[in-house]
Amino acid sequence: MSHRLTLSHRTQSGGDDWQALTYPALLERTDCKPGGRRVAILCGGKPTGMHWRTFRRLNAEHDGFAAVSWAATAQ
């Protein structure tokens, strides 16, 4: 079963007026190998207003944490 979450933030560029942005995301519950359940946030793409450099940095940081987590799970 999926549940919906709405992410929101405000952005401002070059002294322009603040712009409110919202993004829908799904929360997906999945079984874990060691037992129990985990929740994944499913949202696609780069958020509007976020710099690509920031998006790539955060994506790489996430991938690093995920790799460490998967390695620990495999032991």
* SS content category: alpha+beta
Arrangement of strands in the largest sheet: 1-2-3
Q: Largest sheet, described in full? A: 3 strands, antiparallel
- Order of SSEs: EEEH
Number of strands: 3
Helix content: 25-40%
Span of the ends, CA to CA: 30 Å
Average per-residue pLDDT, rounded, comes to: 80
Name the beta content range.
35-45%
Which outline best applies? flat
In total, how many domains does the architecture comprise?
2
Number of helices: 1
In the predicted model, the low-confidence regions spanning at least 5 consecutive residues are none
Radius of gyration: 16 Å
Textual characterization of the structure:
The chain has 75 residues and is an alpha+beta fold. The protein has 2 domains: 1-44, no CATH class; 46-75. It has 1 helix and 3 strands; from the N terminus they run E-E-E-H. The chain has one helix at 52-74, and strands spanning 2-11, 19-31, 37-42. The chain has a 3-stranded antiparallel beta sheet with strand order 1-2-3, with no helix packed on it.
What is the gist of this entry?
The protein is an alpha+beta fold and 75 residues long. The protein has one helix at 52-74; strands at 2-11, 19-31, 37-42.
Give me some keywords for this one:
alpha+beta; 75 residues
Task: Present the secondary structure layout.
Elements: E1 2-11, E2 19-31, E3 37-42, H1 52-74
Antiparallel strand pairs: 1-2, 2-3
